[in-house]
Amino acid sequence: MYKKTGFAVSTELCSASLDFHHQTAKMSDKNVRNAGFTPSGISKGSLASSMMSHEAKASGGGVHSGGPTSSLQEMGARGTTHSSGFTSSGISSGSLASNKMSQEARSHGGGIPRGGTTSTVQSVSMGGKGGRR
């Protein structure tokens, strides 16, 4: 009887853990979509459109592939923010996001710049404004 109770408790804990993981996966993808990065494109009047405008002005008229706006739009369109490693609780170890963060840190002398791709994508996936006020 004790073993059955122990088994039932561990099944419940496993189920709760999986449900929590599923909810946090939904949260980071939802945050990116709420910011205006959607499957049908960037939403007018959203944080996404503001970011796109700022990035285009700063680069002389275009949004570069691999930059914050294009990265977020790709993940928003596909719903892959969480599976890429940008989660609502931070960057996942060993993920695409952690590799991107390491590359960006190396190219900037060891730190991640404010407004860079990694910091902006992580901020938005956590429900922030990507460094914008």
From TrEMBL:
Bilayer disposition of the protein: Multi-pass membrane protein
Signal peptide: none
Location of this chain's protein in the cell: Membrane
A single Gene Ontology CC term: membrane
Compositionally biased region (Polar residues): 40-52, 116-125
Feature: compositional bias, Low complexity: 79-98
Residue intervals passing through the bilayer: none
Family designation: Belongs to the IFI6/IFI27 family.
Name the UniProt record assigns to this protein: Interferon alpha-inducible protein 27-like protein 2B
Organism the protein comes from: Pipra filicauda
